[in-house]
Structure formats: C-alpha cells, structure tokens
Amino acid sequence: MNPANDHAHIENDIIYSVMAGDQTIEAIQALREEVVAFADQLRKNNQPVRVFADINQIGKETAETRKASVELIKNVMPDRAVIFGRSVVSRYSTNFILRLSGTSDITRFFNNRQKALDFLLR
Q1: Strand, coil or helix: 109
Q2: What 8-state DSSP symbol labels residue 107?
Q3: Residue 97 CA neighbour count, 13 Å, CB half
Q4: Cβ atoms within 10 Å, residue 45
Q5: What are phi and psi of 118, to 5 degrees?
Q6: Distance CA 65, CA 71 (A)
Q7: Is residue 56 within 8 Å of 84, Cβ to Cβ?
Q8: Fold of 7-121
Q9: 72 alpha-carbon distance from chain centroid
C-alpha cells in the first residue's frame, strides 16, 4: 500500500493540487480544505480561481474516493481547471468525475503540461 501524499500550493496565481499515492477519504478531505482555502484567498484578491490538478502519481482509488473527488471539485468551483495525467484510464475516470461534478464545461483533461497551462491562462 502506498499511502496518499496529496498536497496543494499556489504559484503564479494558480492552485496546484497533487494527488499522489493510494487515495483515502481523509486525504481527499484534507486536500479539499487546502484547495478551498487557496480559492478563498484568490477570490478575496479578486483573482480568478484556476486549478492545475496533477494526478500522474495517483495510486489506487475506490468508488468512495472518486465520489469525494467530485465533492472536492464542487466545493472549489474554479473559474477554470485542468486535470493533468498521462494514463488513458485516468482520462476516462476523470471525464466521468467531471460530468458528475457538473464542471465539464470549465475543466479539461490534458496529458501535456504546457497545453494544460495554456488552457488555464487563456
């Protein structure tokens, strides 16, 4: 078992969220708290909320952790977001989560980091 090592930070007014290791409800809830706090900070400064979620190092997921991921996205409600991953399975799983969260119109999946950043910054 590879325990979750999820974390977030802000760089150049973009919230970077990294999901690494086997996902747990607790890890996703802690990540949600971090990302929501950063989003609130950006909104207080009249900045757009842009999220870059890196899932390249994600481990095992369960139905419960995928549901928690949907709630994370709903709680943050970014102006624009990208999910960055290289796995085809991740792409399908992510697109399913985005449809459930109702954010598929403002969130895209990319397997190229620069294209993901370009989408966020336009």
Answers
A1: strand
A2: E
A3: 25
A4: 8
A5: -60, -40
A6: 10
A7: yes
A8: Transcription Regulator spoIIAA (3.30.750)
A9: 8
Total residue count of the chain as it appears in this document: 122
Residue spans per domain, the chain: 7-121
- Global pTM? 0.89
d(Cα 96, Cα 41) in Å, to the nearest integer? 29
Contacts of 28 (CB under 8 A, 6+ apart): 4, 6, 19, 65, 68, 69, 72
At 30-54, the pLDDT tens digits run: 999 999 999 999 999 999 999 999 9
CB atoms within 10 A of CB 64: 12
User: Position of tokens 């290791």?
Assistant: 21
What local confidence, expressed as pLDDT, does residue 2 receive?
61
In this prediction, residue 1 carries a pLDDT of 55
